């Protein structure tokens, strides 16, 4: 408990004071926007890690759930004047439902076959965003998404968005931590290691894999709703298959089946492209090389399962 308090208190102070610290820089709004995206990507990485790291299912279509959450929130808020505080859980529920629908048949697949099917699903969803013009406004996207309000106060600045995303991210981390450290999480790891052995002790692999897929999709929907309201605009370009690969890279880089690893991977791969803009022609090549080297020399990631016994703000890998 002491270790948790020692780390958590300065971390909380740092996160709360960060917007005021960055005001000292000329590009404060840009830095706050990066911080907002770090929070969104942390939720996305954690949600995919439930599927890939804890359930052991190779999924390549996570951007589809991210997009479904974003478009659900955007459509509800723009077309039906629904409050963000209702649109957020609605986006999560709708996305979780789509995750359940897709997961019911595809969780019977394994390895490359599952990856191909989920990748195809991601492309289908993106094409729906592009071509269903009456609903999604096609390639032009949905502009003018209203900012959330708290009573008479409207959250309209990047500082406001930072605190909004911070609160939702912390809540998401705590919920996911609770899930993976519960009996459900332990059973999920058992299924990942050996489905036959799991079934022999009364654990139904299909049930646990489907629940993991649904939960992962649900939290991706939360991230999508946050993206929509903080960007105030959504378009199909934000949810291409490259985004799925990017989220998967965050999982791999940080470490599978690790909450601190997901946080670390999301932070590094959100900040790195911006920090390397001065070599814009080569930054993607450099990032790709770094990931390849990580997979060769440190396949468990920066904070993978080999560090599961070590605590980070009281959070183990499990």
UniProtKB/TrEMBL annotation:
It is a multi-pass membrane protein. It is found in: Cell membrane. GO terms for cellular component: plasma membrane. It comes from the Bacteria. Keywords: Cell membrane, Membrane, Transmembrane, Transmembrane helix. The chain crosses the membrane at residues 7-25, 31-52, 59-78, 84-102, 114-133, 161-180, 210-235, 247-272, 284-303. The keyword Cell membrane applies. One of its GO terms (molecular function) is branched-chain amino acid transmembrane transporter activity. Pfam families: BPD_transp_2 (PF02653). This is Branched-chain amino acid ABC transporter permease. The lineage of its organism: Bacteria, Bacillati, Bacillota, Bacilli, Bacillales.
């Amino acid at each position: 408990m002491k270790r948790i308090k020692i780390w958590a208190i300065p971390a909380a102070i740092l996160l709360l004071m960060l917007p005021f610290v960055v005001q000292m820089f000329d590009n404060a709004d840009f830095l706050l926007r990066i911080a907002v995206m770090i929070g969104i990507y942390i939720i996305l990485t954690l949600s995919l890690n439930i599927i890939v790291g804890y359930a052991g299912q190779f999924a390549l279509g996570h951007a589809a759930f991210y997009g479904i959450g974003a478009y659900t929130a955007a459509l509800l808020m723009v077309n039906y004047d629904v409050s963000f505080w209702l649109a957020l859980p609605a986006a999560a529920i709708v996305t979780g439902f789509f995750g359940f629908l897709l997961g019911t048949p595809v969780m019977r697949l394994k390895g490359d076959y599952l990856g191909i099917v989920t990748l195809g699903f991601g492309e289908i969803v993106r094409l729906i965003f592009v071509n269903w013009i009456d609903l999604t406004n096609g390639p032009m996207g949905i502009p003018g998404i209203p900012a959330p309000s708290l009573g008479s106060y409207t959250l309209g600045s990047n500082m406001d968005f930072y605190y909004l995303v911070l609160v939702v991210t912390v809540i998401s981390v705590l919920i996911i931590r609770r899930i993976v450290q519960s009996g459900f999480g332990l059973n999920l790891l058992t299924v990942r290691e050996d489905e036959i052995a799991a079934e022999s002790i009364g654990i139904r692999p299909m049930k646990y894999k489907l629940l993991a897929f649904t939960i992962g999709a649900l939290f991706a929907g939360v991230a999508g709703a946050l993206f929509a309201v903080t960007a105030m605009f959504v378009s199909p370009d934000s949810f291409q298959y490259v985004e799925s690969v990017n989220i998967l890279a965050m999982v791999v880089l940080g470490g599978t089946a690790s909450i601190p690893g997901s946080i670390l991977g999301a932070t590094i791969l959100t900040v790195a492209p911006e920090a390397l803009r001065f070599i814009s022609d080569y930054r993607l090549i450099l990032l790709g090389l770094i990931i390849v080297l990580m997979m060769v020399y440190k396949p468990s990631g920066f904070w993978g399962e080999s560090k599961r016994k070590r605590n980070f703000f009281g959070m183990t890998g499990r």
